[in-house]
Amino acid sequence: MTPTPAAENKKRKAPAEPERFALLGVWAVLIIAFSLIVPQTFPTAANVSNMLSSQVVLLILAIGLLYPLRAGDYDLSVASTLNLSTVVVAILNVQHGWNIWATVVVAILASLLVGVINGWVVTVFDINPFIVTLGMGTVVQGLIYLLSNTSTISGIDRALSSAVLTRPFLGIPVGFYYAIVLVAVAWYVFDKTAFGQRLLFIGQSHDVARLNGVNVPALRWRALIISAGFAGLAGVVYAGTTASADPVSGASFLLPAFAACFLGSTVLRIGRFNPWGTLIAVYFLVTGITGLQLLGAEQYVQQLFYGGALVIAVILSKLVRSRGERKRRAQAAEPA
């Protein structure tokens, strides 16, 4: 029996799943709770500005990570690539006297090279990207130790810090606005371009996408290059934020970046890696961490929050996908 126009219209106007806004509700509760418990410090303009600006590097890294994740690939080399970019900027600028903007270009090119190698090995030899990027990240970290002589390099040109930390609007450093622009660009790419839609198609099934004429290897390769480029950009911003390069500090961004991506897939577009959800996840996590630290919690609360968020987000993503499969099967079984 053919559905009536009224039934079709009712189906189209069905309310959106309310659970996709659950994280926003929990975030609002956290903000209100901490504002009431520590009103002298948490809801202040200085604290809000600090929370927004302190997560710029993580947000840029996580947005880049979304590209291969949409295609079903894990890039475990992003933290080492971020570190490489930071160290290259420091070595060329501080030790060799290069112009700061020339070092930025070289650092991003070096990062892109990591992505090119990752993509080449993954697609040409058809090896699991989890293994390839884990190994490549270790190689890059070894190169970082060699280049930096395992020591911190300080004294990066303050022009880079000024470009990242200047406060142009509402007392928030300009780096935050750079990150928001990248989030908006990622949203446009994922939702409005054929490239973004094909990445999603590939992520659902490489074989099905290939049988439908999608150039799966080329798109996966491109996604890994983009991820590495974002990691390089995050490294440049990190160098500007700290005005130095530590050969090991970049490793601390890997777990939070994955936690933000997976937690972000449980909000707004449930079951899909999406940039606005990742933005919300990043600042949800820093809200909880900052609030607990203002209450006197120890530093380890940060690891607890990020690790716990990653585990919970992966479980929720699995449950959502299973529920979606059941819905699709039920809809397919319904009589026409």
List the helices and strands and how they pair.
Layout: H1 5-12, H2 22-37, H3 45-54, H4 56-70, H5 78-95, H6 100-124, H7 129-148, E1 153-154, H8 158-165, H9 174-192, H10 194-204, H11 206-211, H12 216-242, E2 244-245, H13 254-264, H14 275-294, H15 301-333
Antiparallel strand pairs: 1-2
How is this structure best described in words?
By secondary structure, the chain is mainly α. Helices cover 74% and strands 1% of the residues. It has 15 helices and two strands. It has helices spanning 5-12, 22-37, 45-54, 56-70, 78-95, 100-124, 129-148, 158-165, 174-192, 194-204, 206-211, 216-242, 254-264, 275-294, 301-333; strands at 153-154, 244-245. It has a two-stranded antiparallel ribbon with strand order 1-2. The protein is globular, with a radius of gyration of 22 Å. The protein starts with a helix and ends with a helix. Residues 5-15 have low confidence and may be disordered.
Features of the shown structure:
two-stranded antiparallel sheet; single chain; mainly alpha; 336 residues
Please give a quick description of this structure.
This protein has about 325 residues and is an all-alpha fold. It has helices at about 5-10, 20-35, 45-55, 55-70, 80-95, 100-125, 130-150, 160-165, 175-190, 195-205, 205-210, 215-240, 255-265, 275-295, 300-335; strands at about 155, 245.
Q: Tell me the distance between the termini.
A: 6 Å
Helix content: over 70%
Approximately how much beta-strand content do the residues carry? under 5%
Which ranges are low-confidence, i.e. pLDDT below 50, for 5 or more consecutive residues? 5-15
Using DSSP, what is the number of strands?
Answer: 2
